[in-house]
Design brief:
The chain has 178 residues and is an alpha/beta fold. The chain has one domain: P-loop containing nucleotide triphosphate hydrolases (Rossmann fold). Helix 5 runs antiparallel to helix 6. The longest helix has 20 residues. The two termini are 28 Å apart. The relative contact order is 0.22. The N terminus and C terminus are likely disordered.
C-alpha cells in the first residue's frame, strides 16, 4: 500500500487481505481502522458470528458469501455517499480460486481499486499465535491452508490492482524471532 493510498484512488477502494489464520490480518485491520476510522471492515469471521452466533462455526458458505456481497455493496454505497472512504476485506483468501472469486465479486459490486495486502507471516508464528487465541483454528486446517496458499500465492493475475507483502516475524505481545 502506498503512503496516502487509502481512499485516494478514483472510485471505491478495497484493501484485500490475504494470510493464514494467526498471521495478523485482523490485528492489522483494527490498527488501520484506528488510524483511519472512515474505513469499513468486511470480515468473514464477524459475518460467521453474526449469522451463526459463533465465529468458529464453518457453516453454509452460501450464506456467508451472500452477506459478503451485501456488505461489499453497502460499503460501495457508503463510499459514494461520502460516509466512508475505503473498505477492508478481512478473510484468509488462501485458495486461489476463492480469492479470484472474491476479487471478481468486489469488482462486480463496484470497487474500482483493489489493493492486495499479503500478510506473509511465517507458519510457525501463525501456529504460535493461533495457540494464544480464544478461538483456535485446528492446526491441520492451518497446515492445509498453508500448502494451498504457498502453492498458489497471491499475485496481480488474481485481479488485484496492486499487491504488497508484509512479513511479521514476531509474535504479538513481544515474542521475537531468535
Amino acid at each position: 500500500m502506498r503512503d496516502g493510498g487509502i481512499g485516494c484512488a478514483s472510485g471505491p477502494s478495497l484493501i484485500f487481505l490475504v494470510g493464514l489464520p494467526g498471521s495478523g490480518k485482523s490485528t492489522w485491520a483494527r490498527s488501520c481502522l484506528a488510524l483511519h476510522p472512515e474505513g469499513r471492515l468486511i470480515s468473514t469471521d464477524a459475518i460467521r458470528g453474526q449469522l451463526f452466533g459463533d465465529e468458529s462455526i464453518q457453516s453454509s458458505w452460501v450464506k456467508i458469501w451472500l452477506e459478503v456481497r451485501r456488505q461489499f455493496q453497502e460499503a460501495v454505497s457508503q463510499i459514494a455517499l461520502g460516509q466512508a472512504s475505503f473498505a477492508i476485506y478481512d478473510a484468509t483468501n488462501a485458495v486461489r480460486k476463492q480469492r479470484r472469486q472474491a476479487i471478481a465479486l468486489a469488482r462486480k459490486t463496484g470497487f474500482s481499486q483493489i489493493s492486495g495486502l499479503w500478510l506473509n507471516t511465517p507458519l510457525w508464528v501463525c501456529l504460535e499465535q493461533n495457540q494464544r487465541r480464544d478461538r483456535q483454528v485446528p492446526e491441520a486446517v492451518i497446515l492445509r491452508m498453508s500448502r494451498r496458499l504457498y502453492g498458489a500465492p497471491p499475485s496481480a493475475e488474481d485481479g488485484l490492482d496492486s499487491l504488497s507483502e508484509l512479513t511479521i516475524n514476531h509474535l504479538e505481545g513481544g515474542g521475537q524471532v531468535g
